[in-house]
Design a protein that fits this description.
The complex is a heterodimer of chains A (117) and B (111).
Chain A: E1 4-5, E2 10-14, E3 19-21, E4 24-25, E5 32-39, E6 46-52, E7 60-61, E8 64-69, E9 74-79, E10 88-96, E11 105-107, E12 111-116
Parallel strand pairs in A: 2-12
Antiparallel strand pairs in A: 1-4, 3-9, 5-6, 5-10, 7-8, 8-9, 10-11, 10-12
Chain B: E1 5-7, E2 10-13, E3 19-24, E4 31-38, E5 42-50, E6 53-56, E7 65-71, E8 74-79, E9 88-95, E10 101-102, E11 106-110
Parallel strand pairs in B: 2-11
Antiparallel strand pairs in B: 1-3, 3-8, 4-5, 4-9, 5-6, 7-8, 9-10, 9-11
Classes of the chains: A mainly beta (117), B mainly beta (111).
């Protein structure tokens, strides 16, 4: 079974508008972490935001916020005030296990976001 | 601050040749990861190290692949012999424990 599911292969948004990228996950662990990475066309993987399973508040980093709904096992990325430079592939990933463990990340298939001027 | 450094950035080789990919992690990071990205399979973890010791190599596809970390500032991923199906982008990532920071990747093409 897929551990990380990103159901939107592609998304389009107008510049300056907000967009939500969906991510659902599957785990039986109580302790886990959720990550979002951005991969522009140049190919590098850029860390955006992290949410721990025990964190009570939704994570925010500048224009990025994570809508964490634990009961639904979803960790959607919200990008506010989209910019042309936000056009990229976005990956949701999960780390299972102890909080401080540097263990493996499982990645979703990604969502290709296109920001239109 | 220097990020994760990978070399070469691009590699084109012929089937049967040995390929060595190199990675220098961020100083002070205890964990090092090797990933492979393809269109068909997405991002897959190949192997990871903690304090230079391999912890999980279950993602290494077969015996043709080997990885070493002789010290805290250097790791290699070797493919011998290479095959066309090994063509992919290979990422190295390092982590102080929680977040993984990726290098720019090595684009490998095996003809």
């Amino acid at each position: 079974a897929q551990k990380i599911t990103q159901t939107q292969p592609g998304m389009f948004v107008q510049e300056k508008e907000a967009v939500t990228l969906d991510c659902t996950y599957d785990t039986s662990d109580q302790s886990y972490g959720l990550f979002w990475y951005k991969q522009p066309s140049s190919g590098e993987m850029i860390f955006l935001i992290y949410q721990g399973s025990y964190d009570e508040q939704n994570a925010t980093e500048g224009r990025y916020s994570l809508n964490f709904q634990k009961a639904r096992k979803s960790a959607n990325l919200v990008i506010s005030a989209s910019q042309l430079g936000d056009s990229a592939m976005y990956f949701c990933a999960m780390r299972e296990g102890q909080r401080t463990s540097g263990s493996r990340l499982t990645f979703g298939e990604g969502t290709q976001l296109t920001v239109n001027p | 601050d220097a990020g994760v450094i990978q070399s070469p950035r691009h590699e084109v080789t012929e089937m049967g040749q040995e390929v060595t990919l190199r990675c220098k992690p961020i100083s002070g990071h205890d964990y090092l990861f090797w990933y492979r990205q393809t269109m068909m399979r997405g991002l897959e973890l190949l192997i990871y190290f903690n304090n230079n010791v391999p912890i999980d190599d279950s993602g290494m596809p077969e015996d043709r692949f080997s990885a070493k970390m002789p010290n805290a500032s250097f790791s290699t991923l070797k493919i011998q012999p290479s095959e066309p199906r090994d063509s992919a982008v290979y990422f190295c990532a390092s982590s102080p424990g929680r977040t993984q920071y990726f290098g720019p990747g090595t684009r490998l093409l095996v003809l």
